Sequence to fold (480 residues):
Amino acid sequence: MKKFKMRKFKKAAAAVLALTVSAGCLAGCGKDDGTNSLPATGMGEESGEPSSKGGGNGTINVYAFTDEVPKMIDKFIETHPDFGYDVNYTIIATTDGAYQPALDQALAAGGADAPDIYCAEAAFVLKYTQGDAASYAAPYADLGIDIESELSDAEIAQYSVDIGTNPQGEVVGLGYQATGGCFIYRRSIAKEVFGTDEPSEISQVIGGGQGSWDKFFEAAETLKENGYGIISGDGDLWHAVENSSDKGWIVDGKLFIDPKREAFFDLSMELKNNGYHNDTQDWQDAWFADMKGEGAKGILGFFGPAWLINYTMAPNCGGTKAGEGTYGDWAVCDSPVGFFWGGTWLLANKDSDKKEAVGEIIDWITLDSSESGLQYAWANGTEDWDNDPSTPTAKDAVGSGKVMSSSDGSLDFLGGQNMFDYFVPANTYANGKNLTQYDEVINQYWRDAVRTYTSGEKSKEEAIEAFKQNVKDNLDVVVE
Fold:
């Protein structure tokens, strides 16, 4: 769901991938409410011709849900002229649940058309690394990757490793993007209400790093007294709550409601009853309006990773330079709790007969921390993925902490702040052990249940019972 600007592909069958929601709902960011923005295509496979020309050693099949990873592989082939393989891409959007069934069928069928490389986003990645489809994934070590050494050298965040580790303790998937979350706030509002816009000071104001929401709600009351809201809607808080929980939705095969997640009922009601937000829903027009400063009342900030800044907030801030809309009026500070939101993991088929070549691609995308690797170019915004100087790559938080620590993450959108100063530690605070393969569906049931409570349709007890019934009726999960 996210990043590179759309470009025309080589065959008419691939046409042009068009955004259907917003620039922020782009693929790899892994928006975890189950709705992504790109329509299904069959680039490469349906055209009957490989999408990237590399040579005569054979064809590597890639399954993805946007053109992000294909563009990365295109760049790998361009910068490795001796690679010697053609690459065939099949891109099927996650919209309407189309991607996973197609991928599952292709993996089960095997043969020459089976994917050698495939992508999974945070909402469903556990299915492919630890769940029902984990048996298809090849350990990175089997791809010729010195996994332990490279993980250490690149300083890959532990949450990403945990998510990509199979039940046998082998790494079978890694993300190329870092999605640890911070609080992204309006400088002008912070300065007016709290007398400063300095990130270290605002971190203290909202209880950054304290593991508690107490200071955050104190700040919300102060903002209310001055005519502002602290966040746009309860969804902004949910992503921080969800991924800061100690356990996931399923424990020993049974539905489990972590106390930190259950507390979201009360946190959401407190936000609404006290008028601490504009009561918007994420990914809706009113949410985007708050990024422009055009909502019912001014909003201090949003919780999110770097991709939220680059691919959602910046395109929806009402301007492209300082003085236009809210562009340049933002900064990043610590979240009260550690969390991550989204991401895309790369996996390889254990039955691929091109493991070494597949390993070269995956290593370059996820682990190579040298200045010639994808991570360095992406973190510094020095790679032109579209070969179009007029559309430069945005600087982004990448999987390698080593790369970010040695890179310039300053953004004009953030008033010149180096965002890596906060996103590097944010990635270390994130917990990767609270996901399940059912998160995409269960999260939606939970969010819906909370809305029925805060709207007054149901009591808290009734809403939770309805949530449990939804899980029981629709998923292969024991509900007590």
Q: What stands out?
A: The longest helix spans residues 439-454. The domain at 27-178+342-378 is CATH 3.40.190.10 (D-Maltodextrin-Binding Protein; domain 2). The CA atoms of residues 61 and 112 lie 9 Å apart.
